[in-house]
């Protein structure tokens, strides 16, 4: 598309950042969406220590699928690895949003430049 060819230092800087993001954030197969949090749950046994405390620790991954919120319980031994994947997923999502904004800015710059040529 022609609008990717906007000229000028600002356009060049945006384009450079766009390609930097593209190289840095290859589409991954194992990044995770959502959030992973440690919560506490009481088991319901009145003789358990959790009945008078804050509960048993558990990890939950919350994410969206087809517009619906999903919550999955995660084994605690997986938490460290999944926390990294969720953070990488968040970084990837932000990079894609930034690329979208860059593309829109390049389009607007190109449109202004074409208008000046007339």
Lay out the secondary structure.
Elements: H1 9-24, E1 35-41, E2 56-65, E3 68-74, H2 79-117
Antiparallel strand pairs: 1-2, 2-3
Describe the structure in your own words.
The chain has 118 residues and is of the alpha+beta class. The chain has one domain. 47% of the residues lie in helices and 20% in strands. It contains 2 helices and 3 strands; from the N terminus they run αβββα. It starts with 8 loop residues before the first helix and ends with a helix.
The gross shape turns out to be: elongated
The chain-level structural class is alpha+beta
The SSE order reads HEEEH
The number of distinct structural domains comes to 1
Q: Please report which band the strand proportion falls in: under 5%, 5-15%, 15-25%, 25-35%, 35-45% or over 45%.
A: 15-25%
Uncertain stretches of 5 or more adjacent residues: none
Strand order, biggest sheet?
A: 1-2-3
Largest sheet: 3 strands, antiparallel
Number of helices: 2
Question: Ends: how far apart?
Answer: 20 Å
Mean pLDDT: 88
Rg is 23 Å
The total strand number stands at 3
* Share in helix: 40-55%
